[in-house]
Amino acid sequence: MPQTVLLAEDDRAIRNALERALTLEGYQVMAVADGVEALAQAHRNRPDVLVLDVMMPGIDGLQVCRVLRAEGNRTPILMLTALVETADRIAGLDAGADDYVVKPFDVEEVFARLRALLRRTSPVGVGSATAPAEAPRPVLERFIEAAGIRMDPQARRAWRGARELELTRTEFELLELLVRNTGIVLDHSTIYDRIWGYDFGPGSKNLAVYVGYLRRKLDEPGAAQLIHTVRGVGYVLRED
């Protein structure tokens, strides 16, 4: 059965072109022109993934994202944005988005990011079987801990000390990867492959944005920084 995409884009030319491309790629597409319609469709026919334009009249993509997350809806969300500043991207992540694509975009990049989002939400054994960087987790495993971080992968909850962290799906998976490989420097390509299922190349700032946002949620005044940048290589979790 084809996976369903709810596409909200107020630019008719972009909406029609992307709807055609997604349909040819095998998706069932529900295309709407604004945030009000997007929320109505999301409530009536829950899609497998949402593609939301950030800037739409009335209710914009960020507001749609916030409303759905406040309702407990965890459907993966890909944002389309013409805003290229890091602060604008962080606003999308803060609203609960899982990923973003900057306009003008290559439709193949949209396909790749959708496949990655859907693969991460598919049951085990469904879709692409990208191997994790760590050894397979034991069936009865509950908590993993390192550098003062405690995580419950089954419940998707995480704490630094006694403080529970409010993490998006992507932030949780990124932190889990780092915790499971504490002290090991993971290069950019490895992280992209494990988290997104696709290496977006050296020009992409996607990973840096997520790491920066995760640091903001982890860091505490007077406490050791946990995520360290190894310039030209990647990132490592350790408590100095």
The CATH homologous superfamily of the largest domain is termed: Response regulator
Strand fraction = 15-25%
Poorly predicted ranges: 124-140
CATH topology of the largest domain: Rossmann fold
* CATH second-level architecture of the largest domain: 3-Layer(aba) Sandwich
Q: State the total count of DSSP E strands.
A: 12
The rounded Rg comes to 18 Å
Class by helix and strand content? alpha/beta
Number of helices, where a helix is a run of at least 4 consecutive DSSP H or I residues? 8
Strand-helix topology:
Elements: E1 4-8, H1 12-24, E2 28-32, H2 35-44, E3 49-53, H3 61-70, E4 77-81, H4 86-94, E5 99-102, H5 107-121, E6 144-146, E7 149-152, E8 157-160, E9 163-165, H6 169-180, E10 186-187, H7 188-195, H8 206-218, E11 227-230, E12 234-237
Parallel strand pairs: 1-2, 1-3, 3-4, 4-5
Antiparallel strand pairs: 6-7, 7-8, 8-9, 10-12, 11-12
